[in-house]
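FAQ: What does a ligand-bound record look like?

Like this one, built around iron/sulfur cluster:
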Amino acid sequence: MMEVPEKIGPPPSSAVKDIDWQDFRDHLSTADQEGRRMWLYPKQPKGRFTNVRRWLSYLLIAVMFAGPFIHINGNPLLMMNVVERKFSILGQMFWPQDGAILAFGLLLFLTGIAVFTAAFGRLWCGWTCPQTVMMEMVFRRIEYAIEGDALAQRSLTKAPWNTRKLMKKLAKHGIFFALSFIIGNTLLAYIIGDEQLLRLVTDNPRHHLRGLGFMVLFTGVFYAIFARFREQACTFICPYGRLQSVLLDENSIVVAYDHKRGEQRGKLHRAVTPAQRRVAGLGDCIDCRQCVAVCPTGIDIRDGTQMECVHCTACIDACDAVMDKVGRPRGLIRYASLNGIERGKKLRITPRLVVYSVILLALGGSLAALLLTRSDVDATLLRSPGALFQQSQDGKISNLYQLKLVNKTSRAVQAELRLESPEGKLTAFGSTLIPAQQLLQAPVLVELDPAQLASGRSALVVGVYADGRRVSRLQTGFIGPRNDAATR
Ligand code: SF4
Ligand code: SF4
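The answer part, i.e. the structure of the complex:
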C-alpha cells in the first residue's frame, strides 16, 4: 500500500483562486510576525532561462554603461538633461520647444508598457529592468563569489566576527561601493552629458559643488539599494509592480505554477512510483520548495501571481531541474496565463488589448507626424516687455522685439529674418548665425509707416529662413498710435 505523507499541502487547484486558507496576502514574505525584515538568502539559480538572461544582461549592461558615451550626429545616444532641459534620444536633440513631442513620447511609452504588461506580464522586470539586471546578474553574483551560496551566506552571517568574516564583508561591500560609484556616475552622465561629467571630475571641485553633491548622493542611493534594500526597491518603491493588479488579467502571460498538474502536492517517497502517486491523488509537485529557495523576493509562486514576483524565471529553472530528476515533464512552473492553465487556452487578443493597441497606434501616429514636421530651427518673437512704440522724426513708428532662435541640429545654421507683412523695415541686432544646438537671443527692431497701421494694434508677420529655406512663420502684434493721435 502506498505511503501518503501526512501533510500533503493545500487543497486542490480551486484553492489558487479561493485562497482563504492561506494568509500570504496578509503579510510580507520578507517580514516576521513583529514586522521585522527577514533577510533573504536566495539560492543561486541555474538553468536555461538563467543562462539566456545572463547573456542578455551582458548586452544590456554594455549598452547601459556605454549609452552616455556613444554619440550619434554629435549627440549622446541618450541624455536627459533636466537641468538645462535638453534631451537626446537616439542622437536626436529635443528642446523645451519640443514639449508636445516629449509628452507624446512619454504617453506612448506608458501606453506601450500597459499593452505589453497586459499581454506578457512583467517581462520587463525580469529580463530588462536595470535594477533586476544589476542586482541579480552583478551584485548577487559577486556575493555568491565572495560569500558562497545561500547556505554559506547564512552561516557566515551567524558566525562570530573574526578576520575571515571581516575580510569577506569588507571585500564585498568595498566592491559594492565601487560599483555604486560607477553606476552613480553613469546616471549623472545620462543627465548632464559625458563632456560635463568629464569637466566635473577634472576641474577644480570648488566650481562643481552641486554636481559633486549629486555624485555622492547617487553613489549612496545605489549602494543602499544594492547592498540593503534589494527586493524592497521592487516591492515598496517601484510603482510598476503595484500597477499589476490593474494591468494583468487572466489572459496575461505570467510566470505561473500549473496547479492543475502540481496539486495535490506531496513529498516524494522512494518506494512510491509515479503511477501510485497519481492513484493517491498526488500531483507533480513534490513540495521540495526549491522554487521558493531561489526566489529573490522570497515568495512561493505556488500561491499564485503576486505583486512581489518580478518574473525573474529562477523558479522555472529550479522546478525544471527537479522535474528532470523525478522524471516528470518540465514546465510545472512556466510562462502561462491563468486561462492557459485552467482551460488550456492560448494567448488571446482580448478587447482590452485591442483598445490599448488602438490608443498606442494613435499615439504612435501622432508622434510620427510631430517628428516628421519638426523643424531644425525653432523661433519665437515677442515684444520687449514694457517697451512702448517709438516715433522717429520722419514719422516712422518702431517696436522693439526679443527674438529667440533654437538650433536643434549639430551644425551652425545661418538664420535670416524677413518682414512679410506689412511692408516695412526689420533690423536684427547682432549675428543671426546660431551655433549648433544653441539658443540665440537677439533684439529686433521693426519700423513701419503709420499709413500701414490700423489704429492701436496691428498684425505683423515675420518669416524665419535657415539656409535659404523658410523654417518658421511668426505672427505677432505691432503697437502704434491710435489713428486720431497719428494724424494729429
Ligand atoms: S520546485 Fe517544483 S516540485 Fe518543488 S516545490 Fe516548487 S513547484 Fe513543487
Ligand atoms: S516567483 Fe519565480 S519568477 Fe517570481 S520573483 Fe520568485 S523566482 Fe522570480
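Follow-up question: can I read anything off the structure? Yes, for example: The pocket of iron/sulfur cluster (ligand 1) is lined by residues 257, 262, 265, 285-291, 302, 318-319, 322, 332-333 (CB under 6 Å).
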